[in-house]
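@channel sequence for tomorrow's demo:
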Amino acid sequence: MKPVMLKPDSLLTLEEGFILTYPRRDVEVLKRRIEAVKRLGVNLIEFTGSKEVSNVNLLGKGTRSVIVKVWVSGYTYALKIRRLDSSIRSLKSEAENMKIANSVSVGPKLISYNSDMILMELVDGKPILEWMNTQTDSDVVRRTLFKLILDAYRLDAVGLDHGELSRASKHILVKSNNEPIILDFGSSSTNRRPSNVSSLVSYLFIRGTLPKNIQKFCQYSSREEILDGLRNYKSKPSKEALYNLIGRLGL
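structure tokens (generated this afternoon):
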């Protein structure tokens, strides 16, 4: 299907405007959100992507928000829009946590935000499960996983817990240059002890569908040795404990 590209003002009279107030139709809220979109500098909204709502294509759809592709001064970005039935009243906390992640070079780059929207870097990549199924080069896989675990450590080090890395298949994209990007900081928090490395390593090497695939590329230790390395890291998170764990993972 050919992407539909529309100016923000046109959404007031077109079916696609429903996306700005999803899942309800509210003309007054739509008017306010159109103005908010324009204040973020958005010139065009491109309705494209693998998700679909009422025959309108989107980049993403979750229980709290929808994500669309937008154009700002000739460049493309992703715009996260808070759903009207969302359990959260504002996206500001998520945006502030993205700032923290960006301070250690993790996550999509935050561009701008308000209480209902986050304008960010548009990451073009494959979900990690899909990416892994296309790989044949052990060195590439090990480098990518090494970078991913380092990113998780950086989040631990700044006290930000992502909150969803135990289900990392939905929250990691791998770009065409094999750079992994941790996405979606909607469940992140600085008010609980970070467990990013532990959650990610458990997902990649112990639980889920990835461990068997990864074992083809990484000559890692036994499950018990990995768990022992995780316990050491949890008890005293440090670079020394991290690299000891990475060694056990065969990276």
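heads up for whoever presents: The longest strand covers residues 65-72.
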